[in-house]
């Protein structure tokens, strides 16, 4: 056994100079770059004991295998795929070039044994909000052991194991003796991408799912349609994308695309929660579905433009019932996000039929009552599909009656306002998700990951019981200003800050330590092929190869 | 002759929905997207007469050729390379796939004849600040003619010609009958990239030179070294990059790299002006050159850290003479940028030898006099190499005596301050360049290209004679937060706004028309392989293929 007492992370070494931020204004205090005792781990596991004893790993002899005792075996392709993936991350060059094949150096650590401890590994299931993602990792010589009740924890532990491996000055892979016990602080750690304002090619979505797994995110919130375009190809209503997509076949997601994305995500322990936002944000729906939207009036006659979904026609609800029946089978996740935000009442107000309906129902001039009327019926429809639902906070604010398992998604206001909203939502006994401080589409100059990092979803006035109703949060990258050209570097590593906040212990908040680890973590993402942008002046040993 | 009366730009068609900017705050007024009468031309030529008569172009029969009367022929590889490049831009798919080879459709326009009208085409020269970039373009059937006194104008005209070509609904290429007379408003239209804060792989530099040509930029200001790293490999002082680069061979520019970049730029009519900034911004120089930097003192003894270049040692000037002698041969351009900005006096103040020198020279405690002393000697040294120089505004502000052909580069302050500075500089009879409003590293949420677009370098209080001393300007992308992962989408099409401001007539300032043309221009850049980011919600017919 060769053991060195040095913990070097040359593979991911980054020099960040403390030069003055010339030509720029100091917007944020720059954190100091030191070496974290936790190397390049991101997000930080709940409990880490890392020794200075280092073991060598040889690409020729090291392998990831099922533990004999594991309830999961060769038939679990989710794990087999993950072994192959992490093998390639750990030995990106040596295996590909077959360099070490002739000189079969012995590894101090010859195997990582993956041991699924519960009878049902859940290998062929979809992840859910109750999935067990915990794991224990023991790195020792001659074997390392990764124990997890379910495959979901094994996936998280494999990522952690890969983050422990580093390269010494001679390019040799090493790993220190380590004990890790880990589990997520929050069950819902999401990322919202918007494929309506700009179409995102499949390749971009898959690359970002990959990066999500590296950051232990577990929910892809797919804001798939909205006003500008309707790229979801519906089997039941093909006209929706035929007319509503930017282009009927180059800018759509076919049923096969959707299936592939869901499976790619599942293999990484990521849920795909689709959002079909109504009654607002539906301009693109109207192109392929006659009479779905409210005709707006200019004085006594229709103006030719359309408003939100028309809530007074039975055909609307017939359509929604059929549409969400399809959606509930296409997307296996137990939840659907139903939107419900930002309904503009001006068109409804202009329409004489709507006015008549308001009077009949006794709504007076309170159009939020009409909105609630619509949402209530929609929720009833979706309930028949046996799905749970998530909705934006306005639906709660408007007093719509909701099922107890509804997730209220908080996105509005400044810090004081969103904290008050979290308090109100949880005081009403609802589960909640936070996004307000994590609107990553809003960029600013400098190290804005720090503001995202400092926000905490349980930081509001409330009882312990209320805090427990916080299921997690989501980073959101709305699509006005991003497409395939700039989405990925704009998202990473800024979203990584949210990833750690939602996974690690609430006391993990040392910005300097985070800066050190995140700088290395971003270089690792770059080396794995994702153009994650730099946090500050410096370099990666392996720079991005694209343009 | 097939002539249609439609001017469609389906190839570059972009639908930008006027949806509310949901989930975002309105920072800037969104311009309206209409169709510009100028199609996708960017920057707008000085004089355009475009008819609605459209001609067909067939990839199988159309070609770009030297006009018989041209003073430039097959031996001019600059033009031959450009013909090949533009042929590929105009027929990106059909030629590559050889689709049209069998069915040789006739073109309404069968040739673009390129006619260099002056006896010396300057084909084998380097471009300079006095290069003639004017051209006249006549598109008619059966031939189009591009007349230019020099190759530089021909390059600009080829780009314009390629921008006139569009695709109809059936994918057929068309071009309208057009007359263009064009020349740049300013002779110096630069882009600064910083390869010290982050190393930029050659590939990234070349891609951005390519994009510069599409936007009619003609100066690459290469801020090659600075505090954080010294990637320039010097033949005379190899230790500078050996010790000062982030990595001695993966993060350096070898003499061959530099040569290649200069030639690649020349072929596109782009000058390469190198900046070796002293006496500040030189931390990385000190690593490979003993005694070059000033030792800082803490009380009576050296603190171990170093300040600006040591201006009191003869060895400093010996080094500078040898170093700039090399630089003046490596970079053929007539100008060198000598920096001279942001000199921090605290280290000089702490050093007893410097204090003694100050007393001897009678400088009192005015360290700007010491700075001027250094700069004056440096300028004398560089003058012996027969180069002109550019310097940042501080050198002028400090009253250093400058040669009459010196270019003062204005970069500081708010609008009022930089306009006052432009007035002072030109009142003193110096030529000047503006950069303050074009620090594109400073990002903000929304359509910030508009602010860059609205700035005008001649917008200050001064006489016509003063205005004529404005040579142009430069967009700057300082490197704190950009590297290969995010530089290109962050730069384009934001820098395009500066490109039009510096090329087109000063009255070209209709933001709505610009928005329409720029939206199409950015899709064209994407189709040519550059990940130029979107201006707003919408799509390109051909989305970016990378991640």
From TrEMBL, chains A, B:
**GO molecular function term, any single one:** beta-N-acetylhexosaminidase activity
This protein's major location comes to cytoplasm
The reaction(s) catalysed by this protein are:
Hydrolysis of terminal non-reducing N-acetyl-D-hexosamine residues in N-acetyl-beta-D-hexosaminides; beta-D-GalNAc-(1->4)-alpha-L-IdoA-(1->3)-beta-D-GalNAc-4-sulfate-(1->4)-alpha-L-IdoA-(1->3)-D-GalNAc-4-sulfate + H2O = alpha-L-IdoA-(1->3)-beta-D-GalNAc-4-sulfate-(1->4)-alpha-L-IdoA-(1->3)-D-GalNAc-4-sulfate + N-acetyl-D-galactosamine; a ganglioside GM2 + H2O = a ganglioside GM3 + N-acetyl-beta-D-galactosamine; N-acetyl-beta-D-6-sulfogalactosaminyl-(1->4)-alpha-L-iduronyl-(1->3)-N-acetyl-D-6-sulfogalactosamine + H2O = alpha-L-iduronyl-(1->3)-N-acetyl-D-6-sulfogalactosamine + N-acetyl-D-6-sulfogalactosamine
Q: What is its EC number?
A: 3.2.1.52
Task: Show the InterPro entries listed in the entry.
Answer: Beta_hexosaminidase_sua/sub (IPR025705), GH (IPR017853), Glyco_hydro_20_cat (IPR015883), Hex-like_dom2 (IPR029018), HEX_eukaryotic_N (IPR029019)
State the signal peptide span: 1-19
Which Cys pairs are S-S linked?
76-123, 296-347, 523-540
Provide the protein's localization.
Cytoplasmic vesicle, Secretory vesicle, Cortical granule; Lysosome
Query: Has keyword Disulfide bond?
Result: yes
State how it assembles.
There are 3 forms of beta-hexosaminidase: hexosaminidase A is a heterodimer composed of one subunit alpha and one subunit beta (chain A and B); hexosaminidase B is a homodimer of two beta subunits (two chains A and B); hexosaminidase S is a homodimer of two alpha subunits. The composition of the dimer (isozyme A versus isozyme S) has a significant effect on the substrate specificity of the alpha subunit active site.
Give the matching PANTHER family: BETA-HEXOSAMINIDASE, BETA-HEXOSAMINIDASE SUBUNIT BETA
Q: Family, per the entry?
A: Belongs to the glycosyl hydrolase 20 family.
The protein here is known as Beta-hexosaminidase
The opening ranks of the lineage are: Eukaryota, Metazoa, Chordata, Craniata, Vertebrata
């Amino acid at each position: 056994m060769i053991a060195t007492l040095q913990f070097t992370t040359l593979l991911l070494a980054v020099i960040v100079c403390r030069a003055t931020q010339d030509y720029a204004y100091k917007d944020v205090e720059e954190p100091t770059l030191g070496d974290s005792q936790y190397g390049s781990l991101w997000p930080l596991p709940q409990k880490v004991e890392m020794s200075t004893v280092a073991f060598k790993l040889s690409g020729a002899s090291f392998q990831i295998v099922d533990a004999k005792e594991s309830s999961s075996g060769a038939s679990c392709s989710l794990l087999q795929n993950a072994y192959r993936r992490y093998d390639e991350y750990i030995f990106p060059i040596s295996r590909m070039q077959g360099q070490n094949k002739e000189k079969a150096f012995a590894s101090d650590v010859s195997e990582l044994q993956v041991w699924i401890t519960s009878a049902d590994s859940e290998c062929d299931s979809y992840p859910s909000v109750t999935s067990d993602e915990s794991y224990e990792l023991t790195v020792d010589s001659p074997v390392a052991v990764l124990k997890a009740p379910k495959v979901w924890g094994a996936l998280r532990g494999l990522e952690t194991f890969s983050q422990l491996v580093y390269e010494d000055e001679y390019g040799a892979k090493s790993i220190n003796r380590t004990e890790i016990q880990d589990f997520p602080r929050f069950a819902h750690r999401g990322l919202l991408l918007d494929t309506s304002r700009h179409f995102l090619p499949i390749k971009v979505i898959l690359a970002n799912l990959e990066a999500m797994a590296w950051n232990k995110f577990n929910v892809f919130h797919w804001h798939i349609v909205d006003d500008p375009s309707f790229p979801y190809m519906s089997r039941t209503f093909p006209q929706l994308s035929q007319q509503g997509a930017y282009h009927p076949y180059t800018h759509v997601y076919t049923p096969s695309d959707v299936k592939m994305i869901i499976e790619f995500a599942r293999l990484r322990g990521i849920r795909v929660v689709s959002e079909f936002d109504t009654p607002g944000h539906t301009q693109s729906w109207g192109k392929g579905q006659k009479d779905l939207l409210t005709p707006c009036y200019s004085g006594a006659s229709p103006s030719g433009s359309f408003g939100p979904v028309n809530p007074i026609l039975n055909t609307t609800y017939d359509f929604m019932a059929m549409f969400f029946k399809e959606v509930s089978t296409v997307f296996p996740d137990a939840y659907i996000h139903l939107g419900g935000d930002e309904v503009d009442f001006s068109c409804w107000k202009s329409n004489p039929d709507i006015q008549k309906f308001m009077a009949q129902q006794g709504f007076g001039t309170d159009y939020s009552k009409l909105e609630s009327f619509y949402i209530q019926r929609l929720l009833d429809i979706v309930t028949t599909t046996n799905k749970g639902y998530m909705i934006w906070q306005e639906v709660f604010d408007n007093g719509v009656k909701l099922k107890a398992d509804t997730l209220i998604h908080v996105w509005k206001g400044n810090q004081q306002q969103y904290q008050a909203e979290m308090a109100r939502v949880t005081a009403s006994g609802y589960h909640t998700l936070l996004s307000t401080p994590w609107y990553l589409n809003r960029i600013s100059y400098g190290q804005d990951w720090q503001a995202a990092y400092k926000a905490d979803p349980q930081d509001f006035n409330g009882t312990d019981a209320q805090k427990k109703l916080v299921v997690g949060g989501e980073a959101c990258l709305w699509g006005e200003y991003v497409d395939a050209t700039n989405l990925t570097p704009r998202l990473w590593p800024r979203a990584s800050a949210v990833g750690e906040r939602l996974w690690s212990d609430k006391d993990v908040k040392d910005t300097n330590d985070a800066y050190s680890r995140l700088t290395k973590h971003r270089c690792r993402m770059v080396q794995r092929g994702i153009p994650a942008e730099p946090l500050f002046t410096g370099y990666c040993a392996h720079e991005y190869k694209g343009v």
